[in-house]
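Subgroup meeting minutes
Present: P.N., E.W., G.H.
Scribe: E.W.

1. P.N. recapped why we're keeping a running log of single-chain structure predictions: easier to compare across weeks, and new members can see raw inputs and outputs side by side.
2. G.H. added today's entry (181 aa).
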Amino acid sequence: MPEEPPHPNDQPRWLAAGELETWRQFALMLHRLPAALEAQLQQDAHLSYIEYYVLAGLSDQPEHRMRMSDLAVLANSEQSRLSHMISRLERRGLVRREPDPANGRYTQAILTEAGHAHLTEAAPGHVAQVRDLVFDALGPAELDGLRTAAEKISERIDHRERQNHPRKDTAPRLPQRDATP
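Output recorded in log:
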């Protein structure tokens, strides 16, 4: 594949039949997998998928705290949307906000003890759903291929974002975690 996006005057590079079927299956999975994960989280933990992801992201940080601006990048969310979500999680006692002690112009989201307990309670069901839908469906070589493909696609997206928005933050690398997604 070319490194640079095609020039607007270039002829389109249409997808071959096999590529088109791969794209359709991939796009369908991109739509259905988060919905299936969210349904389980809603039913078992009364959390949306993004709320779970935000709580899990906070749990991975030192002292379970993170600047709201960094959390928005991690969650791939606009700051205003994230702020509304954090307000909902605050009302439930799962997070709180405080000024950043290093720079009071920033606000940090902090996972509360109740939030950590809720996340810890929600994690086994979520992991079971992830295992059932993804890991149990694929063999070791397929999982390696999926990981490699995901890394390559993410790197390509990050590269394009840096080209198009040199000062804009790109999605951070996922922290290395133990066996809990």
